[in-house]
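Hi R.,

As promised on Friday, here is the backbone we talked about, encoded as structure tokens. Could you run it through your design pipeline when you get a chance and send me back a sequence?
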């Protein structure tokens, strides 16, 4: 599966952005989808993941209550709605896909075998 992320940009603290990831190839519903981010000088970290049917999501503690992940299986898209953005959210955001069973939602980046190219989110304080 190939992934293409978009929607990043420059936003003031407290603002919102919506990231979109479009998948092509493969059977989209076979994959758990995740968003990860990598800030300068830091490791890539899990942000949010959503199960194959869209009925189950997991979030990093740092974004709970502010970010919402969703997916549209018919359109092969996954979204990350980011509200109440903080300067600490500044990073390159990547969407990723993990071939998984229905009851599995990995948060370990090593489990994700497919990655998009990343989109930069900059939050100014």
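Update: got your reply. Pasting your designed sequence below so it's all in one thread:
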């Amino acid at each position: 599966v190939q992934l293409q992320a978009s929607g990043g940009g420059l936003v003031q603290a407290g603002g919102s952005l919506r990231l979109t990831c479009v998948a092509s190839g493969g059977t989209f519903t076979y994959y758990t989808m995740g968003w990860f981010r990598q800030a300068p000088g830091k490791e890539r970290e899990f942000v949010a993941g959503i199960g194959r049917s869209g009925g189950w999501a997991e979030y990093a503690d740092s974004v709970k209550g502010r970010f919402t992940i969703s997916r549209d299986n018919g359109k092969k898209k996954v979204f990350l709605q980011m509200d109440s953005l903080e300067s600490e959210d500044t990073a390159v955001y990547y969407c990723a896909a993990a071939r998984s069973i229905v009851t599995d939602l990995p948060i370990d980046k090593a489990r994700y075998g497919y990655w998009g190219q990343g989109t930069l989110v900059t939050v100014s304080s």
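One thing I noticed while checking it: The mean pLDDT is 96.

Thanks again,
M.
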